[in-house]
Amino acid sequence: KFPKSDSMEKLSVELLNTLKNLKQDDFKQFKWFLKQDDILKGQKGIPEDEVIGKIKLNILATSWMPCFVSDLNPRHLRFVTEGIGEKEAELEKLREFAVDVTLDPDTAHRDLVLSSDGKQVYDTNVTKDLPMTSQRFDTCASVVGKETFSSGKFYIEVQVEGKTDWSVGIAHKSINRKGKICLSPNNGFWTIWLKDKVYEALAKLNPERVGVFVDYDGGLVSFYNVDTTDLLYSFTGCCFAERLLPFFSPCTNIGGTNSAPLIISPVSLFD
What we know:
globular, Jelly Rolls, alpha+beta, four-stranded antiparallel β-sheet, 6 helices, 2 domains, seven-stranded antiparallel β-sheet, 11 strands
């Protein structure tokens, strides 16, 4: 682990600025630069491919979500230098804020099927005869939770194993649920997602369980790979103007290749 110092902070900021302007085609050149300065060799206890994977994931995240680039912060860069024990301890603390969330069937797109306990959802490509209310998503294969949050901290975990496309996060209660929706903070959504074409080159980073931590008063939304305890992404400086709802999209069935359900998982402490 690097010692905490002003020089390390400066390096993190400089590297962050480089990442913001880095294109996917530049990635090989950037990796070569890291090797030349032996930066990767200094990451004791963390494999080189893991460091590269995290940097590449952030690069791809900026290409998926151009309006989120300003939310990247030096913590993402510092995080890869932490030991496994420290990461696990950090996530363990956040899991203490676990809440029970149930899917709201009155908001689910008519192609979606919810389990009887309200913990699982998947798409069938078969439209059910249900009333089209103002609360129901009519185009995007999405659903929100019944519970709302307007203060404090909360945490949930979602199993995404076996899926090629999905999106999870939080949203303002007043979000638009009609027509095509852009999942951006400007529209009241703070989410991450997986798309098959994007993740083909990053299959080893594909999480099976995603942890979502929200600090309403602190304006923070963070996403974790629960099984590796890695931080996937953080939105900082968020201005929540109203109640928040957990948001889930199993995305479309895609001919059966994306038929696995999203599952709201019970949260238990690490062994």
